[in-house]
Amino acid sequence: MRKLARNTTFKKGVVVPSLVFILSVSFISSFFPNRMAALLSQVQGFIFTNLNWVYIWTVTVFVFFLFFLVVSKYGSIKLGDNDEKPEYSFFSWVSMLFAAGMGIGLMYFSVAEPISHFSEQAFGQYDEIRRAKDAQLYTFFHWGIHAWAIYGVVGLSLAYFTYRYKLPLSLRSCFYPILKGRINGYTGDIIDTFALCSTFFGITTTLGFGVVQLNAGLVEVGVMAGRGFGYQIAIVAVIMAISIISATSGVNKGVKFLSQTNIVAAVILMLFVLALGPTVFVLGSFSEGLGNYINEFFDLTFNTHAYEPGVHPWFFSWTILYWAWWISWSPYVGLFIAKISRGRTIREFIGAVLIIPTAFNFLWMSVFGNSATWLDRNRLNGLLSSMADRTDELLFRFLEFFPAAGVTQLLAIFIIFIFFVTSADSGIFVMNSIATKNAVRSPKWQLVFWGLLLAVLALVLLNAGGLSALQTMTLITALPFSLLMLLFCYSLMQGLIADSNYYGKGFSPATINWSGVRWKERLHRILSFKDRDAVADFIRNTVDPSLRELAEEFNRRDVAASVTAAGDHTWVELMIRHERIDNFKYGVRCQQKEVSDFLVSEENLPDLDKHRTYIPESYFGDNRIGYNMEYFVQEEVIADVLRQYERFLGLAAEVKNELFTDNSFKNTPDDE
């Protein structure tokens, strides 16, 4: 055991509670599947019925938050160092986005979802054409920008804090601006435990239900004779064996190669259906559907069907369930997206994550879904609609109506199989990353451990009928996690603001004309953190004499100038009054400044033992933001006033500034 402990990168604070919770839930779901499913279904029903608006609003916030970042100045910030280059080529990157995100679902629902919406009784009052259009619209909605915005928020937060702030690739890092150093304590462990359990349950349920579809497809093409548990064991064993081999070979080899292979295979299948199906109709309906989606975007985004109680069952079992499912999967997908996105800018990340997969999803769903509804309406007399509840079989039955059905069905099975493998191996990689706090190198037996645990529990739950209960619990946890994701947005915004301030910070105006003269005095001032009395002494001994000397020269040249100072010398100002234009004012005041905890605790800095210091800060009559004057000597104070006065006269002399500088009719505090 000691040798094993030395040869592991597992973090006990994350792995132990996670395994206890995973095994406990799996045990209860296996031995009491019906009771567990009934209880959780009631909880899910209550949440979906009474709190569906929470899902709607949180997803809406995610969408518009990402839109804001794209057009903002923060969009140019890189996920990494400023000179970071992307780790993967654009094609490899996009291929892996699909593999980890929605690859399996595209195969599973490409025919089933449009047919389900088309045959939905809640829309029975509409004519056939309206139902076909709405079927495409709702499919686009569920697989479009909103879904990828959920993944994008988690992935962007993780990638930003990991590569920009050098924090672990872990959900705890997303709370860094809020928790700061506490992310390395128990609070951080709790967050990662939640992420690990959510990822494990999401992959387990997907693996279990996906095996059923693969089994159905293999039966359809005659590879397997039945759908018994023994066949399902064989499928899981093959999938997980390849997944473990792929995961242990690393993302650069296994996942990338399989993802690229599968994208090519999927495109071939899509082009086959497009070419031999109702091609003109599909391309025309794709264009029309895209316009319909854009036109209805805001209505779809905010719609809760509050005035349509008859639509509620469909709304809860499709839109709300989808949002909950995408949210529950977002820790896993977000972690994987973050892992492969180093070196991209925020604008590039959001644009690619939201637009490219969405565009492909729309084309894919149009080719398969619209072909299916067209066949159902024009050739099959509702045959596919009558099978709407047999989701596992619909894709394969649909392909039967095309030439070379056996070949295309085998290709579909191959694509589904590889999508499962890529989801499983990327899931194994992500879970090990969470469990080790993103250790650089981990022994391969840990990856094997996660793969075997996934396979065993998926089969146990599948055999016992506990997968439905596990899936329901996963969907329920999406509600609190959606609220945590709102905190991700807040934390990310705080991080971006600090980032922008840090890299946008220029040199102090006092340093612009520095030379090597009097450098020791400059160094002393830089290393000195001043109290109020020290700033008052600077104003009294440096600024006040400079302003009075300058005022005396102004008055000698027939320009009336005066200097006013506080009795304690916490401020002093030079004033030149005018009748037609604004008064010129140049002042310096004592200003408090907060100091970060990190700087206070830094031992390699002298004279700082408090969380605040004071600086002499300039201010002006036009309320512009001032700057720190602490490094100025008397000649530099005079030069700075003259620089500001020359700017003032230059602005007043320009005709285009008359509206702003005309003071003849203004009531200012100085005139009262």
TrEMBL record:
Membrane topology: Multi-pass membrane protein
GO cellular component terms attached to this protein's record: plasma membrane
Keyword Membrane carried by entry: yes
Location(s) in or outside the cell: Cell membrane
MF GO annotations: transmembrane transporter activity
Domain of life assignment: Bacteria
TM regions (residue ranges): 12-32, 52-70, 90-111, 140-163, 190-209, 229-251, 263-286, 315-337, 349-368, 410-435, 447-467, 473-493
Entry keywords, A to Z: Cell membrane, Membrane, Transmembrane, Transmembrane helix, Transport
A Pfam family reported for this protein in Swiss-Prot or TrEMBL: BCCT
Principal subcellular localisation of the protein: membrane
Keyword Translocase: no
Family indicated by similarity: Belongs to the BCCT transporter (TC 2.A.15) family.
Protein name: Transporter
